[in-house]
TrEMBL record:
Signal peptide: none
CDD domains per record: HTH_ARSR (cd00090)
Residues spanning the membrane: none
Organism encoding this protein: Sphaerotilus microaerophilus
Keywords: DNA-binding, Transcription, Transcription regulation
Gene3D superfamilies linked: 3.30.70.920, Winged helix-like DNA-binding domain superfamily/Winged helix DNA-binding domain (1.10.10.10)
Name of the molecule in the record: AsnC family transcriptional regulator
Domain HTH asnC-type as annotated: residue spans: 13-74
PROSITE patterns membership: HTH_ASNC_1 (PS00519), HTH_ASNC_2 (PS50956)
Length: 168
């Protein structure tokens, strides 16, 4: 067992790092002692490895997954936004406006038709409609908007797959 993550790591993760990532994705509330027990290391090297994974940007944060319906967000919409002009300044202004909207829980540049794909939550269809008219359609650089509504969640909040990561 190695105690120094800086010595243990080059550019590659090892089996302990991969095990830490998998365990924390399943339950980020694990104590360090429980995490150490699950991956087969003692507490001190496990703690150092977690800190190293955070410093290197593998672990970017911890949060609770909240049931959106329980807090009154019954509508999940997928919104494709087509930008009017694809120049850097206009796109940056649109990005900044999207980042500032709490209703937008995810945004991606996309290939094919459209510029951005948003995931938007609202309490109900009326609230979504008001938000779209008062906020979305008034964004800078928006040419067109196409919305699809989720009719049921099959899978959400999944952990990232790690089977392709080869540990040393």
């Amino acid at each position: 067992m190695d105690d120094d993550p800086a010595e243990a790591h080059g550019a590659a993760l090892d089996r302990y790092d991969i095990a830490i990532l998998g365990a924390l994705q399943r339950d980020a509330r694990l104590s360090n002692a429980e995490l150490a027990s699950r991956i087969g290391l003692s507490a001190a090297p496990t703690w150092r490895r977690v800190k190293w994974l955070e410093e290197q940007g593998y672990i970017t944060g911890y949060r609770a997954e909240i049931n959106r319906r329980k807090i009154g967000l019954g509508v999940l919409a997928f919104v494709r936004v087509d930008a009017d002009r694809n120049n850097a300044e206009a796109t940056q202004a649109l990005e900044a406006a999207i980042r500032a909207m709490p209703e937008v829980v995810a945004c991606h540049y996309i290939s094919g038709a459209g510029t951005f794909e948003l995931q938007v939550v609202a309490t109900d269809l009326d609230a979504y409609s008001r938000w779209a008219m008062e906020v979305l359609f008034r964004l800078p650089n928006v040419k067109d908007v196409h919305t699809s509504f989720s009719l049921g969640e099959v899978k959400a909040g999944a952990a990232w797959p790690l089977s392709h990561v080869r540990g040393r």
